Amino acid sequence: MAVFDTPQQAFGILRPICVQLTKVQTTENVEHLQAQLQMVSDSALQELQEYVLFPLRFSLKIPGPKRESLVQSVVQCITSILSTTCVRKQDLFHELFSELCTCLSSPSNLPQPAPLSEELKLTVIQALHVLMHSAYEDIILTLYQPSTLPHLGFAVSLLLGLAEHEKAKQIKLAALKCLRVLILQCDCQEHHRLLDADETKQCGDLFASFLPGISIALSRVITGDVKQGHMVTVSAIRLFYLTLSLVMADEQLIRITKDKEKPSADQSRLFELVVHRGAEWVKSTADKLSLLIHKIAEFACVHPHWKVRVALVELVHHLLLRCSQSLVDSVGHLLKALVGLVNDESEEVQSKCHEVLRNAAELRTIAENRALADVLSENLHSLATALPRLMNSQDDQGKFSTLSFLLGSLKLLGPKVNIVLNSAAHLHRLSKALMQVLELDVADVKIVEERCWGPEGSLGQPTASLQPCVQKGKGQKKYFRFFMDERIFLLIQQVCRVLGYYGNLYLLVDHFLGLYGESVVYRKQAAIVLNELITGAAGQGVDVFHERETAASTEDLKGTIVSILEEYTAQANWYLITSIDTEQSSEELLVKQSRAHALPGGANSSSLISSFFPSSDPSPAIRSMNSNIWQICIQLEGVGCFAYALGKEFRLLLASALYPVLEKAGDSTLLISQTAIGTMVDICHACGYDSVRCLINANSDYLVDGISLNLRQAAHQPHASQVFEAMLRHSDATLLPLVEDVIQDVLSTLDQFYDDRVSTFLGVLSTLVAALVQWFVVVKGNKHPQEQNAEQPTSTSPHAPQRQGEGSVTTPMEQDLQQFLLDYSKEKQIAEGNLPALEEEEEVHPSPPEPELNSTGAAGETPLPAHAQIAKEVLERCIHLLSDKSLRVRLKVLDVLELCVTVLRVHENHLLPMAHRAWPALVTRLINDDPLAVLRAFKVLRTLAETCGDFLRRRFSSDVLPKLTSSLVTQAPVSARAGPVYSHTLAFKLQLAVLQGLGSLCEKLDMGENDLNKVADACLIYLSAKQPMKLQEAARSVFLHLMRVDPDATWLFLNEVCCLLPSEPPHTSLHPLKLSGMGRQRTEFTDNVLCLLSELQQRETAAFQARPQEAPEP
Amino acid sequence: MALPPPDPQFVLRGTSAEIHTLHFSCGSQEPDYPLLFSGSSNGLIHIWNLKTRRVDTVLDGHGGKSVYWVEAIYDRDRLLSQGRDQKICLWDLAEGRNTVTDSVFTENVGFCKCSLLRVAQGHWLMAMPGKDLDEIQVLELPSKTSVCTLKPEADAKPGMPMCLKLWQPDFGSCPFLLAGYEDGSVILWNLSEAKILSRLTCHLEPVMSLDFDSEKTKGVSGSSEKVLSVWSLDEQQNLKVQKTQELINAGIADVTIRQDKKILATAGWDHRIRIFGWKKLKPLAVLSYHTATVHCVSFSDHRRPNERLLAAGSTDHRISVWSVYNEI
């Protein structure tokens, strides 16, 4: 397309169309003109600007109704001209401005926007926008004179009306954008000259007149329907704060003279419209604005779209920066909004907020500004007062924002927070609020119920699975009465830490320790607060805007921590009732009653006693126990916090702090012991120990000291034993030399208190010996028991040749038969005392235990290793306790006894005398005692048999076996008749245990033929198909063991019961066999017997096939 | 009703040998932490840090022979130790050193502990058993020059000295020596004239230990009998028995009066530590913890009276540390 560069050429083209348009105003003509304009260069058009604009303006000015389409195309055309040209003349600018405004207004009601089509409105607004941009700066400024105030006001009100009442988003946006241009705060790319101070003040003066209108309209837009879209709200907020910061800027207001300028005579009427921004005006305006700001902030704070919230942050920033003095009353609202958004869920809002807060803090506008500090502390006070109520009434979201505000205020106050804290009333309010908010929910019965039983599992477990308590998260999950949301707790945590960070530590700790001691109701909360205060004071895990000037010195911190620790571990706060334990002896109860004041007021000792009877709903006593458990947990967590706060310095406090923690690690309440273990891990991390084991080993002297001292006092003995158990559980063999000393103490204390303390100490002994087994037997000698069993068949291999000679179905070779006879005669010779092959025999079948026996035999005089010595001493005590009158004790003793035997297994010289001494008591347990005890005693017997077979053989067969077999025989008919429920009875378990153990016992003890027969007779009944399956299986196992001891006799015995297949004689020279079981009908025993026989046969075959390898004898 | 006797505040273990002597040194400045020196039967001297309750240093300088007297001087930069190897060693402990810088050979085979008295800044007198069995030598430290040798007249025959106590009525005045002998007598020696001022036979058995209160000019001694004897020194420099306190079990290994002269502690062969009021010798407490003979008791010299501790060392290898009667 040709471009006409020179004005002459352009004029040539445009003239006819302009003339045409002046004559006939039609849309076509306008469009024609617009098309032609495309061909004119910008510079040419600039020359012809007024000429071209004339017909267009003319067509707008023609009185009478106009078609909208025409107006629209005319305005569009004007827009396109203006966008490429500049307006250089003031008159033209003013005229165009008012003409465009008129387009929007309805002719009848001037300030109201006309009911025009949306397109037209949009076009006109855009035209205005373009006009403002195409005008020269100085020309634009002429618009901001008192004389043009009506024009401007007209435009402003029109645009506001559009922004407020239009439905279309685009129009709203365009109107707001245009308004923004009007207040000379355009954000477009084009260069705008910055106004100097005077000009700004002039504009400010002018816009002050519009401020009420603008602000009210905008606040309506902002707080309007959320459906209008966030863009509108955002730009409205921007416009709002831009306007405010133009009119209410502090720097302008300072320069306002007291008296209104005298208007010159001719302009007096107009001048009256101009507002004088004197102090009074500022005050009243600020009051009104404060309402609006409050409304806007409240609305935008919770606006679902994050951009709106960002815009709000910007608003706060702007106003704080520019108008903090003029709008001082609103600062509260602004800050509230700001700090409320600090913990917003959107990253952008958060970071923006932080930036602004940091900015504000850096500028020291807040900390230095006394007025603001006052406002903040006043806010804090009112918030603290309202907090309990709010916590009751608000939902979690509401609580979250309330607390965010609290936290933000504290952070903003920074070091100034001490002003607030020094006021007793403020501190009181604040602490009471925290106490109430942090109230724990202690109705959960499960916490009281959950306990960890016995040493199983936890002994010697690697500590890798243990979680530190404090650092990773927040330790045990707590349940609060007033909120569920975890974030709220984190906020409160931050509040406390910030307090600790800035606040006067002594003052705070003193105050909260006071609350801690004041009432049980506050105790847990105060402990939480104290823990966090210390963490904060150590500068850990706090997020603050400005560094404190002086950090708390390590010495101060240590002193404070020591005093808190003393309070925590004081008798009344550390030894609380956490369980209804019937095992606990009377002394314990006495101690408890003296501690009854630790319970909440309602639960006095009488209700405590009533709580010993189970009740359906969580009674106050259970509640108080739950509360006690939590208190201990919180205090334990506190110890972890303190350790982190002090780092390696905490090592010095371990002398007093570690013992109580271990005490709780041995607690039977699961939650407490877990927390305590977590605390130990915390201490490890904080003090630079590699593991809990290292921690315990390195500080075993402190612990041993504590244990030995506490053992001296009856009331503390259970705790001391708990500590000792915990030590053993979390350490390893290297600990043993360190605690030998205290083991002696424990044993001698036990000797003094056989009667009433037995159960406590048995726990310790059991843990101790279990630890010994773990450290010395399982680790070093783990090949011992299993392999012995595995080697048993080979050691009995002399029988192997015999076996295959008799019952095997495979056709025996003649040489096998021959071999058998040869072996037989050889053995017979040996039996007769002819021993040529003895050495050979030994070489071929070296029995593995023998060398060990020899070595221990030789070392009989050498002192026992420490662990075995300990086991021996424990064993000695067990012998005395075996006949205790309490079944529970007897059972426990039997367990310990078994463990002792396991430890002493390799020291036969020491074990046998002890076994000898223990035997009479053990037999009594086996023969006349509660079935439970019999069960355990039988287990001990089996363990004992593994080691001292020879020693036990005769005793067993004379003292125990008759009783066992007879009881088996008498019980058999009962179990045969019994229904399925029988398998849950104790009698059944006893039968089962005896049957399961008898076989291996016979094998271990290498019983004689008579006894084996007795056993076989007694067990045969249990091979009956009428017996319960389990008993049948167990009985089969007895026979399987018997087969190992004497396969031939067993074979014969079984065949006498039942023999379906008549056996072929292995060789023609032998007579066919006649067995009593032959040809019998199927009986109840048939299935099991056949099963056993086939098993026997398989073994024979296996042995037969294995034989050729061992056959080549030297 | 009287309160039950307290438990030890803590117990120090780990010497794996009998404890024969204890000596506190609490330091004079604030950052200093209190130390406890212990000498044991295996010839080792342990330096315990009472803040951490752990051994800081172990000194080995008596060839495995038991150490039965230690005392720190020069604000615990130096340490004197006496052992059964017949040597008295001077240790340099300053700035973490631990070397023997000097030693004196006593040529005495007895059990008598030395006694040290500061006579001037940087000057001490040390009484120690001499070469002959009944002889006592007094040296001036640090020069090691012999001040005098105290030997009873031939006909006195008090036997070996068992325990010594150097004292002076006022700082700077002429020092005296009290010595307990094998025959149960206590002798007051005048050092400048090297002659016996007074002799008091207050026990039938050898005097195991004695202590003297120079303010009240009153002393106490214990022997292997069942009595504790309190005697006083009158203006004429005569010793005379003031009171004897009967005990239940025989044998006092050590007796010490606390610095404030309010109480006194005894170490008993019956495994117990007994506390008496010094004024009237009123029995105050029986502290039982040890499971074997208690060899020594010592009071701490802490600046703050309420942190003054009592330590006792025993054959059972443990040192018990007690906090008794120090709330003022």
UniProtKB/TrEMBL annotation, chain A:
Where is the major localization of this protein?
Answer: cytoplasm
Q: Where is the TTI1 N-terminal TPR domain?
A: 11-345
Q: Where is the TTI1 C-terminal TPR domain?
A: 764-1051
Q: What are the subcellular locations of this protein?
A: Cytoplasm
Under SUPFAM superfamilies, the record lists: ARM repeat (SSF48371)
Signal sequence interval, chain numbering? none
Region ranges (Disordered):
786-811, 838-862
Stretches with biased composition (Polar residues): 787-811
Q: What is the superkingdom listed in this entry's lineage? A: Eukaryota
* Keyword ATP-binding appears in the UniProt entry: no
Which UniProt keywords are given for this protein, alphabetically ordered? Answer: Cytoplasm, Phosphoprotein, Ubl conjugation
- GO CC, alphabetical: cytoplasm
Question: Does this entry carry the keyword DNA repair?
Answer: no
The similarity annotation says:
Belongs to the tti1 family.
Q: What does this protein do?
A: Regulator of the DNA damage response (DDR). Part of the TTT complex that is required to stabilize protein levels of the phosphatidylinositol 3-kinase-related protein kinase (PIKK) family proteins. The TTT complex is involved in the cellular resistance to DNA damage stresses, like ionizing radiation (IR), ultraviolet (UV) and mitomycin C (MMC). Together with the TTT complex and HSP90 may participate in the proper folding of newly synthesized PIKKs.
Name of this protein: TELO2-interacting protein 1 homolog
Q: Which organism is it from?
A: Pelusios castaneus
From TrEMBL, chain B:
Keyword Nucleotidyltransferase applies? no
Q: Sorted alphabetically, which keywords does the UniProt record give?
A: Repeat, WD repeat
Instruction: Give one Pfam family, short name only.
Output: WD40
WD repeat copies, ranges:
200-241, 287-328
Note the Gene3D superfamilies from the entry: YVTN repeat-like/Quinoprotein amine dehydrogenase (2.130.10.10)
Record's keyword annotation contains Repeat:
yes
The family database entries (SMART domains) matched by this protein are listed as: WD40
Q: Which residues cross the membrane?
A: none
UniProt name for this protein = G protein subunit beta 1 like
Record lineage: Eukaryota, Metazoa, Chordata, Craniata, Vertebrata
